[in-house]
Amino acid sequence: MEFITNSPKETEEVGKNLVKELKGGDIVLLNGDLGAGKSTFVKGIAMGLKIKRTINSPTFTLMNVYTLDKEINKIKKLIHIDTFRLKDGEALLEIGAKDYVGQKDTLTLIEWPEKVQKLIKDKAIIEIDFIQSEENRRKIVVKDEE
Prior knowledge:
Layout: E1 2-5, H1 8-18, E2 27-32, H2 38-48, E3 63-72, E4 75-82, H3 90-94, E5 106-111, H4 117-120, E6 125-132, E7 138-144
Parallel strand pairs: 2-5, 2-6, 4-5
Antiparallel strand pairs: 1-7, 3-4, 6-7
Helix pairs in contact: 1-2
Keywords: ATP-binding, Cytoplasm, Magnesium, Metal-binding, Nucleotide-binding, Transferase, tRNA processing
Protein name: tRNA threonylcarbamoyladenosine biosynthesis protein TsaE
Main location: cytoplasm
């Protein structure tokens, strides 16, 4: 699946609409340069899951956990992980990420996933690439690797 967006709002909409394709237990790897729209996309996913809390990138906290008011597609929790500042995934293990990643009631979104291969090893994943061609124009490519 491929999408072209021309604004942050359109990138959010793609995330919001993609929720119907996701389910509990999915691990979504978000690949792209800094500023490519990954966190904006996560806000859209949260909108699609009807999460009312403010969605901030966990660049400094490493992981944010959001509990849904009502289960959607067997999803009860959204986990947003950002490993930009990490050398490897050890810090994520220390804060308990392993307790969430891949759980059947949890949707996990990981920015900069190349740093956490040990955490996602042997798990079914969906990869999404964000390619920025102009200031607000992005190509979003969804690759299901189940």
